[in-house]
Amino acid sequence: MAPRAVAVVANPASKGGWVGRNWDALARRLRAAFGEVALYRTDGEGDGTRCAQDAAAAGAETVVSLGGDGTHSEVADGLLRAGVGDAVSLGILHAGSGGDFRKLLEHGHDFEASCAVIRDRPAVAVDAGFVEYVTDGGRPQSRHFLNLVSVGVGGLVDRYVNASGKPFGGTAAYLTATVRASLRYEPARARVTVDGFQLGVFDLNVVCVCNGRWAGGGMRFAPRARVADGLFDVVVIKHAPIVKSVPVMAGLYSGRHLWSRLVETTRAREVVVEPLTDARAYLDIDGEAPGVAPASFRVLPRALRVHGVRGDFL
User: Which of 121, 136, 153 is the last residue of a domain?
Assistant: First the structure.
């Protein structure tokens, strides 16, 4: 890659502050892999989006996201907001808790191997999502997403995870938070519409609008999802007493939840979730919890070029 063609957007807070504590060593490793790179550090929510836009405006040909799923999502949002998703490629170096999108990538668990994939392999076009929702304060908001969005208990899980500090790692934090949230969550009754047709009215545990397959530190919500088929996989998990819900939640790690009578699935290009009661349907957008439903979604076919996506997920 030509000098300055690569920009890295890094979240120093990722992996419990590991990125920030090891910044000088990481910068050396990045320069060894890519040559002279432009380095951007995020300081808070939304900075990944702004940094990606700045990097694209400065002429980057590839923008590499160094952080967790939330950072990768913001960087993707920045490239798409800048209108350069088909021109500036996205590379992903994972340093977070959940690590769900990296499961779709070649060598997504290894820093140097991932750098080599970004440097040496051409990017492939994948779908992205666009969601419109409201903030906790009721303000309309929108953004792009990379992996998946859930509506229901998932956003409450995120809030517990982010408050926990993740002392025992991402998988344990998400599992503990899922149990805690399931015990305290008041189900929202909501209408779910797909491609203009009403799928149903449900007392929701969660509805997931999936581009990727995994979320929540390894839960396989959409085992058959592909990131370049122009469709979301939509998974509705209906609310039930805890004794019936626990087997469904346990089945998320293997994909066996799809066989439950509490689960409905379909594929769609557009999805709308409309709460019909005052109970809050919390949003999880790529591992972050920025607001609540009502929410509408649409797929953006092959809108983003990403390095290292495995062929069996396209």
Answer: 121
